[in-house]
């Protein structure tokens, strides 16, 4: 399926819609109104309608949205209809927790390889996932055709690992390190900064405590 260019903010909300639609389908609900959807996912209904409008006519006026067909549509958009293997580099505190989590249930995401420089971690299975020596990054990623990597190494090593990943042909990096990585423009980087998220939350609590937008 080809995906049209949509705003990043819309793209970020798609997994939220997808998760809620999965819940509805499991609860055997056949249709949902934009108001119901809005209340459940905490996104105002005008935004939902605008988000959905990028994909054409998804609902019918007065009927709402058909849960099964909307879910099928988002499954395709989010590539949830085929298994996506990702790798993880840096099997320390955070990396180990993520290996243990491994995106169970209802997602098509799997961490299928991990890497670390520590010899005692290499060539072992951790939480069911093989850990390879960091020297094997390029070879393993290419052999296993993995092009998305979760980066959980200390900040001082993040850029050197990112360079290795780029060389291995990786197309996306989920970066947990505090370093802003420098990569070619065809490589997507998503930064996860917990401090930033917490500060944003505190800001919203202080400024929008009545939950109004
Ligand atoms: N621990 C947390 O809660 C947390 C939260 C948010 C962000 N972070 C960030 O995530 C990163 C990891 O944090 P942590 O607490 O798990 O650190 P950690 O020191 O416990 O683990 C880092 C791991 O990376 C490995 N490593 C180092 N250089 C490597 C390389 N070149 N190739 C492969 N592996 C390499 C180390 O051997 C170690 O096992 C840091 O950048 C940190 O700032 C951590």
UniProtKB/TrEMBL annotation:
A single Gene Ontology CC annotation of this entry is:
cytoplasm
**Compartmental location:** Cytoplasm
Q: Which InterPro entries match?
A: CoA-bd, NAD(P)-bd_dom_sf, Rex_bacilli-type, Rex_DNA-bd_C_dom, Tscrpt_rep_Rex, WH-like_DNA-bd_sf, WH_DNA-bd_sf
Q: Which residues are in the CoA-binding domain?
A: 79-180
Could you mention a single GO BP entry for this protein?
A: negative regulation of DNA-templated transcription
Q: What is its main location?
A: cytoplasm
Function as written in the Swiss-Prot or TrEMBL entry: Modulates transcription in response to changes in cellular NADH/NAD(+) redox state.
Name the family.
Belongs to the transcriptional regulatory Rex family.
Its protein name is Redox-sensing transcriptional repressor Rex
- Name of the gene encoding the protein in the UniProt record: rex
């Amino acid at each position: 399926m080809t995906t049209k260019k949509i705003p990043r903010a819309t793209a970020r909300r798609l997994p939220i819609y997808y998760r809620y639609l999965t819940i509805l389908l499991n609860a055997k609900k056949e249709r949902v109104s934009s108001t119901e959807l809005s209340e459940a996912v905490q996104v105002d209904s005008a935004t939902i309608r605008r988000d959905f409008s990028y994909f054409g006519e998804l609902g019918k006026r007065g009927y709402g949205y058909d849960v099964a067909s909307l879910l099928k549509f988002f499954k395709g958009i989010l590539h949830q209809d085929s298994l996506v293997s990702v790798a993880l580099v840096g099997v320390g505190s955070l990396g180990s927790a993520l290996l243990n989590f491994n995106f169970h249930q209802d997602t098509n995401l799997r961490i299928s390889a991990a890497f670390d420089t520590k010899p005692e971690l290499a060539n072992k299975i951790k939480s069911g996932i093989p850990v390879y020596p960091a020297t094997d990054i390029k070879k393993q990623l290419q052999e296993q055709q993995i092009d998305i990597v979760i980066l959980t190494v200390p900040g001082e090593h993040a850029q050197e690992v990112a360079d290795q990943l780029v060389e291995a042909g990786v197309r996306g990096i989920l970066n947990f390190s505090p370093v802003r990585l420098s990569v070619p423009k065809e490589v997507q980087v998503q930064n996860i900064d917990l401090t930033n998220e917490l500060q944003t939350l505190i800001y919203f609590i202080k400024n929008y405590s009545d939950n109004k937008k």
